[in-house]
Amino acid sequence: MSDFSCVITGGGDGEGPGGAEALRASVESVLGQSLRGAEAVVVLASTAAPAVRSAARTLAERAPGRVRLLHADPAVRTTGALRNAGLDAAGGRYILVLATGERLQLHACRNLWQAGERSRADLIAGRWSRVADDSGKEREPSWQGELYARSRTLARFTEAPELVVRDALVTGFCLRREAARRHGLRYEEDLTHGEILFGPLAAAAVGRIALVRRLIVTGRAAPDRARDLAALVEAHRRVANTLLAHGLSELREEREKAFARDHLVPLARSFPHLPAARRDRVAAAAARALTGCFRDGLPDLPPLERVAVRLLARGDAEGVLTAAYALSRPATVCAPLTTGADGRVTWGGDPEGPGVDVTELGHQYRTFGGARLMNRLTRATADRGRLLLEGRLVLPGHGGPAPDAPLTATLEFRARGGARAAAFPVEEIRHDGNGISWRARADVSRRLRPVGARDTAWDARLTVTAGGPDGTRSVSDLFAPQDQVEGSLRFPARPRLGPLAGDTWEPYITLRDHFALRLTARRRPARTTHRLVRYATRFRPARKAKLLVRSLRGRLDRYRSRGFKVPVYNTWLTRLPVRRGSVVLESHMGTCYGDSPRALYEEIRRQGLKLHATWSYDPSPAGFPDGARLVRRWSWRYLWALARAEYWVDNQGFPQQLRKPRHTTYLQTWHGSAYKRMGFDERRVRLQNAPQRERLQQAVDRFDHFLVRSEHDVDTLARAYRLPEERLLRTGYPRNDALIAERDRAETEGRLPRPPLAGALGLDDHKKTVLYAPTFRGGPGKQRRARLLLDVREFAERFGDTHTLLVRAHYLESARLPLCPPGTVVDVSRHHDVQELLALTDVLITDYSSIMFDFALLDRPVVLYAPDLEAYAAERGSYFDLREHAPGPVTATQEELFGALAELKKSDTRYADRRRDFARRFGAYDRGDAARRTVAAVFAPGASRGARHTIDHDRGAGR
């Protein structure tokens, strides 16, 4: 008996594409397994193509001991019946079924076998990927990441609901043969996509299940949802009924929603790329197959997905096409909207049912000129040698121009990637209720004069002006499905380089569904020229020249790479003589002009010290001071400035790979007191290897001065980074001088008027300002997009009349905010200095961020929103119990947070003494003069020379 039997079928009804080549790839992947006890059981239908039969016979003859060829009975025709025949013939301890074309990874069988033997599980499943597009690129379903985040063993499938909620078990899993036969597991022979049902049935029948985080199967074909919708729906319905039979109604509801998102929404997205006739057929098939909850659009889906599913279930092909445009452009108004008396906005609505609520999209807050409107091209044809275009601009139901407002419009073609454009007047435009219909004729042959080299593609857009020449303008691209333009529609072209550069304008629809023109060669002279140019750029000397240019570019890129710059800097640039009085400042790795480096820079300027300041920036210099020299981080000018600087000042850390020259004094101001464990106290660092920890130690050893604001910093940060006592400056943080000054001003003069920044942000003096500033939750690496735990839209609905929410994502993260009513939510993530925001904030909402230590100095309310407090503290570690020492209420749910905000006066009184104790404990050295004291300690004549120290790797620099 072999260890593994891999069942592969060929020639069955509903078999995937690929034929003989696909079968050969699947069998070869079995033969190439590192587990040699794997056999391939190939089951061929009597209707299999001769090429498939020949390929199977060749493989069986080549490996007679590992490939078994079975010829099914002529009555066995469906894929499910062929797979059942394979299950009956399989002799391995474990059975795995592959669809034709699917391939096993090299160690797939070994990984599954080891997991099964170790866990004694009856079903062992791993990850799989499918072909994402015509290019052949593989992609895993996004939901697999969480399901297979770690290898584990389940007592029941309900411990991992995604196994049956999603189509997780369509491939990439195996069954213990004895368990499969004990439970009588079989494929439904009348079901085209029987694998969708077989996996959940097996998971529900067996006991223990093992999940393997390894990739098992690749090459799964993407389903043709437009062709197989009815079969997919039937398979899904049987899975849902199975869940219901096991009393799992909640999982059935989740399954309905997952099926809509995994199959119905992608089908709707594909509508712009389907011919009109096929769109109608697919919509009609959907109307027959989709019943029940799909007709209502599944209320738990996001609004646009709900719209698409609902229209698909009703068989509205034109509506689904519109929804497809909206799904790819959620900020665009694609259909007429209705605003009710309660302010709710709905899409559609008819006798069959009410419209879908799309209020959360925020279209009601956009005006005619500020909204993106769908401009649907309805006709494109030739009329007496000119291009005739007709279309309709959708108007939002709340903010369009008045029906009697004068309208004018201009059709413009603009060269892609260039500034050249040609405009044509729109001859007919009229308001037709919930839209604007228009017609234009463009003599593109005479008016459009491309050069003919790089300006061969021209995009069209329409500008509509309402209310006279100085009225509101709306600019929109022209959208159309891929079959909107006839292939025979062409116009003569007159390039400035002459007819050899091109001779014909061809209208076409881009991959983004935009109408455009392209310059092509249709006549013999132009075609001949294009062939010669193509040959000249592709024959052997040209190819060698291209390779040479590519090599030179690669070498130039290497000279610009960090891997080349670091040894040049450490070996040669550190030998350069010091430039007396030069100081390089950097805040948060160059991302902003703020924090303590900014406060020190402004104090140096106030005192008139003769220091030459250089600021680093990354990626943009916008917002940095005009009087300072600016260098981009990691540029050669940046390295030159660091090598010659007398002082380094930053709050995060200059690049670890760079040595500090012996003549340089490094002032590390740091970026906040610590609640979460830092440095060598972090679990992540403790798990690193010795060279990694040594690099961190060398980077920290560069510090000559380290600012602390309390003895808490000494006990945590200084100890975590192994800093000796003589390098600590107990001055407080210079950045907090502004907060203490603001607190004193508010106590003596009152809170009004607010700082000038309040006016720039549009803050109302009569509304409280709430700042939401969560901590960084990622690890080392590039900036990433984070999901905010706070629902800012819900906040705006509840508190928007009395509060304005400022949202500041961490500087290493970014967050996309939903559109909310004006004046309720403002994104301040790109504002350089957070202390300026704190100065005008009335209430702070945060979680574990060090911003709470700074804000406590203002003696204003703090609310902590920490829904994952226990998990975060367990994973990252903490220096104290947050609930015991927090300066305000600690909330675990959004309802608790909103309740705390609603009862803020009561909680503020209750937490006032605790907040002041918090500020005294964690900000004992913040007295309002930290910048002056730090400048005196570091930059005064003779101050830094005695404090500067030499570390081991510096002794080699400059020799």
Largest sheet: 10 strands, mixed
Low-confidence stretches: 950-959
Number-wise, the strands total 40
- SS element count, helices: 32
Quick description:
Helices cover about 35% and strands about 20% of the residues.
Report on this model:
Helix content is 35%, strand content 21%. It is α/β, with parallel strands linked by helices and 959 residues long. Helix 9 runs antiparallel to helix 10. The longest helix has 21 residues, at 225-245.
Features:
alpha/beta; disordered C terminus; 959 residues
Annotate the secondary structure layout:
Layout: E1 4-10, H1 19-31, E2 38-44, H2 50-62, E3 67-71, H3 79-89, E4 94-98, E5 103-104, H4 108-119, E6 123-131, E7 138-139, H5 144-147, E8 152-154, H6 162-165, E9 173-176, H7 177-182, H8 194-205, E10 209-220, H9 225-245, H10 249-269, H11 276-289, H12 303-313, H13 317-328, E11 332-333, E12 337-339, E13 345-347, E14 356-357, E15 372-373, E16 375-383, E17 386-394, E18 407-415, E19 421-431, E20 435-442, H14 444-447, E21 457-466, E22 472-479, E23 491-492, E24 504-509, E25 515-520, H15 524-536, H16 540-560, H17 562-571, E26 582-586, H18 595-607, E27 612-617, E28 629-632, H19 636-644, E29 647-650, E30 665-668, H20 683-686, H21 690-701, E31 705-707, H22 711-720, E32 728-729, H23 737-749, H24 756-760, E33 768-772, E34 784-785, H25 792-799, E35 803-807, E36 813-814, E37 825-827, H26 834-839, E38 843-846, H27 851-855, E39 862-865, H28 869-876, H29 882-885, E40 890-891, H30 894-902, H31 904-922, H32 930-938
Parallel strand pairs: 1-2, 1-4, 2-3, 6-10, 11-15, 16-22, 26-27, 26-29, 27-28, 29-30, 30-31, 31-32, 33-35, 33-38, 34-36, 35-37, 38-39, 39-40
Antiparallel strand pairs: 4-9, 5-10, 6-7, 6-9, 8-10, 12-13, 13-14, 16-17, 17-20, 18-19, 18-21, 19-20, 21-22, 21-25, 23-24, 24-25
Helix pairs in contact: 1-2, 8-9, 9-10, 9-11, 10-12, 11-13, 12-13, 18-32
